[in-house]
């Protein structure tokens, strides 16, 4: 019997051969390349029986079954680990996240955007009810579905979420679905000085104040028969909040300097990253205005909580910026998925825009990651001392992870550690010069090359060098 917990595929080079998600029975599941495994991981970098996930003592736990390429949990090689919601698991070249619930719902959405009626059947195009603006899988489409249901109503909508999560995109999609004849107008309440926000929203008559040499329509009247998005509504001054509330209640706008109100037909969408409950308690946001705006509210999850969308976002953003041929590499995706994106989709878009501007190859690779991501990946593939003791023969164990017969999880880590391509070895002269410069400090040489110390020690042995000779 399924518990609702499961693993969701975040990326694999051959993702079409995977189910988008796998539910976990209480009794647990074995993951591996063998078709007889409970969860088949169809990649040659996975062992036949690679890892096991089961529930023990009320907690879900991950166990490595001793395969050649090891099992990674949140970027560390482990023998076993307790799983928490959204933890990252890597089996060979397949990267998953663990979810505590709703695994079956994720199973309908493939990472490239294909919708699957039956997750075990071939993918089919998305149904017509899906969107072109909103990119993403289960979480994004569930929220989009909530908006679509009320799109043609007059309900005001409040969109909450961290900066960069895509609140304006959801507002644009809601306006498209609404069928309203007027335009979508957007005002950033945080960007307009408090003294000017009234004139921006309500407009003014000529002569209303010094410098008002002509009539100004104002954003509310410009949105007549359309939609007004009040972005960052949490930053609107209290005085303007009171006047906005009257407009929503009366559906009338009185421009500055006018004596008579004018009728206005506007659907209101408000968005903010601020905690409106806390602002109300502090007296900085009106409770009656909140009630009017909150006829329906949705909260957009941050990108770190919906990493199953990262691949489709990369492709969609590359297309938006004129590079529809974009092909993310395995190393590139490993770097992105290990990153928590504090600035959300906006941060990912900036990265894609930089790559598109350089106009190099079609592939997004290690050099296209930000410095912050590359720095974080230097510790990717470390061995967790808390979860397992050091192997008795560390050199043998590490070499097994880098076996030439098959690419490994370690290869993806090494590809992200500096300027050397995967498996590339510096020539003897370069390595000798670095050892001289660093006086035999292997850790310093490793930092220079962007590799770990174990790899540098192997190269030293390959060239029959003695570290002590450089100290």
Automatic annotation (TrEMBL):
Domain (Sigma-54 factor interaction): residue spans on this chain: 141-357
SMART domains: AAA, FHA
A biological process term (GO) from this entry: regulation of DNA-templated transcription
Keywords, comma-separated and alphabetical: ATP-binding, Nucleotide-binding
Keyword field contains Ribosomal protein: no
PROSITE patterns: FHA_DOMAIN, SIGMA54_INTERACT_1, SIGMA54_INTERACT_4
Molecular-function GO terms, alphabetical: ATP binding
Magnesium in keyword set: no
Domain FHA residue range list: 29-78
Entry-linked CDD domains: AAA (cd00009), FHA (cd00060)
Protein name: ATPase AAA
Species this protein is from: Sorangium cellulosum So0157-2
């Amino acid at each position: 019997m399924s518990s609702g917990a499961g693993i969701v595929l975040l990326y694999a080079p051959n993702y079409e051969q995977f189910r988008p998600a796998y539910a976990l029975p209480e009794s647990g599941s074995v993951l591996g390349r063998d078709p007889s495994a409970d969860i088949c991981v169809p990649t040659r970098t996975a062992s036949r029986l690679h890892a096991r996930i089961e529930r023990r003592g009320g907690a879900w736990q991950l166990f490595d079954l001793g395969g050649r390429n090891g099992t990674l949990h949140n970027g560390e090689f482990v023998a076993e680990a307790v799983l928490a919601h959204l933890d990252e698991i890597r089996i060979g070249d397949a990267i998953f996240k663990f979810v505590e619930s709703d695994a079956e719902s994720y199973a309908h959405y493939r990472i490239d955007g294909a919708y699957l009626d039956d997750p075990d059947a071939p993918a089919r195009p998305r149904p017509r009810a899906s969107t072109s603006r909103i990119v993403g899988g289960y979480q994004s489409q569930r929220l989009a579905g909530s908006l679509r249901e009320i799109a043609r109503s007059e309900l005001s909508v409040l969109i909450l979420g961290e900066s960069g999560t895509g609140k304006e995109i959801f507002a644009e999609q809601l306006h498209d679905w609404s069928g309203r004849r007027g335009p979508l107008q957007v005002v950033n309440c945080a960007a307009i000085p408090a003294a000017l926000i009234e004139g921006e929203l309500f407009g003014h008559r000529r002569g209303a104040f010094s410098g008002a040499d002509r009539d100004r329509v104002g954003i509310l009247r410009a949105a007549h028969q359309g939609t007004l998005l009040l972005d960052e509504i949490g930053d609107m001054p209290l005085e303007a909040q009171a006047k906005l509330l009257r407009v929503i209640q009366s559906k009338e706008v009185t421009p500055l300097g006018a004596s008579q109100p004018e009728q206005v037909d506007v659907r209101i969408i408000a968005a903010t990253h601020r905690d409106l409950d806390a602002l109300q308690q502090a007296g900085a946001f009106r409770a009656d205005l909140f009630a009017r705006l909150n006829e329906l509210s949705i909260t957009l999850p941050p990108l770190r909580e919906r990493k199953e969308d990262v691949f489709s976002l990369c492709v969609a953003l590359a297309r938006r910026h004129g590079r529809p041929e974009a092909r993310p590499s395995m190393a590139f995706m490993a770097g992105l998925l290990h990153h928590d994106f504090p600035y959300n989709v906006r941060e990912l878009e900036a990265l894609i825009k930089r790559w598109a501007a350089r106009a190099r190859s079609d592939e997004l690779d290690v050099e296209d990651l930000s410095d912050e991501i590359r720095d974080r990946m230097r510790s990717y593939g470390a061995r967790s001392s808390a979860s397992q003791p050091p192997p008795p023969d560390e050199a043998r164990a590490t070499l097994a992870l880098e076996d030439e017969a098959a690419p490994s999880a370690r290869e993806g880590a090494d590809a992200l550690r500096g300027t050397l391509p995967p498996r590339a070895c510096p020539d003897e002269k370069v390595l000798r010069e670095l050892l001289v410069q660093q006086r035999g400090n292997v850790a310093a040489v490793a930092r220079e090359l962007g590799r770990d110390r174990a790899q540098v020690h192997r190269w030293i042995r390959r060239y029959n060098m003695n570290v002590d000779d450089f100290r």
